[in-house]
Write a structure and sequence with these properties.
The chain has 218 residues and is of the alpha/beta class. The chain has 5 helices and 13 strands. It has one domain: Alpha-Beta Complex (Spore Coat Polysaccharide Biosynthesis Protein SpsA, Chain A), CATH 3.90.550.
Length: 218
């Protein structure tokens, strides 16, 4: 069984007013809800157990996706009410559903053609990040790559794509609650346990009404 988590709990403040009544993952991208693109791509890559975290208008997401049977997968839900727990906090909350094996995590507000079947986690890594060339809205980037390992600083710095694979051990020692991801990534990099790859194919951050419109007209 291959497991993946789709992050879908955020309020989508930058996407307002579109997200006032509709959760961001259900906004239409090229004819169907954004989150459905992720479900279909993961299913096509052999991921048959998906976990979706919910907070803002989460009932709409649950009602739309259901148990995943029509996509050929099993979908479970991790609730974060009354507020979203940020990325690491949300994953930590969902660990009992994700199981003991390494699992993929995909941000719900990206649109890409990344082939998830190729996502791998080496024996010496607790995390593996997919990085992309810096988009106009994030020219400073996030991390570099040194011989296949993610590093905090480098001559060439790239943007974290919101696609990764983790072992449950990556979150060991973390305290439940609101928890950002970056400090955990930096700690893993310090230990030499965070690998990375650069993806140069189609990838777009669908984080604002303008970028959503650009994806739909591109």
């Amino acid at each position: 069984m291959k497991t993946a988590m789709i992050l879908a709990a955020g309020r989508g403040e930058r996407m307002r007013p579109l997200t006032d009544l509709t959760p961001k993952p259900l906004l239409q991208v090229r004819g169907r809800p954004l989150i459905e693109h992720h479900v279909a791509a993961l299913a096509a890559s052999g991921f048959n157990r998906l976990v979706v975290n919910l907070c803002w208008l989460g009932t709409q997401i649950r009602d739309y996706l259901g148990d995943g049977a029509r996509y050929g997968v099993s979908i479970l839900y991790s609730e974060e009410y009354p507020r979203a727990l940020e990325v690491a906090g949300g994953i930590l909350r969902a660990l009992p559903l994700l199981g003991p094996a390494p699992f993929a995590v995909v941000n719900g507000d990206i649109f890409c053609d990344f082939q998830y079947a190729g996502l791998k986690l080496g024996a010496n890594a607790d995390a593996h990040l997919v990085l992309v060339p810096n988009p106009p809205q994030h020219p400073q980037g996030d991390f570099g790559i040194d011989q296949g390992w993610a590093v905090p600083e480098a001559v060439n710095v790239y943007t974290f794509a919101g696609i990764a694979m983790y072992r449950p051990a990556f979150f060991q020692g973390s305290v439940a609650g609101v928890l950002p991801l970056k400090p955990l990534l930096l700690h893993s990099m310090e230990k030499g346990r965070c690998s990375a790859e650069l993806y140069t194919g189609n990838w777009q951050d669908v984080g604002t009404p303008q970028r959503l419109a650009a994806v739909n007209t591109g």
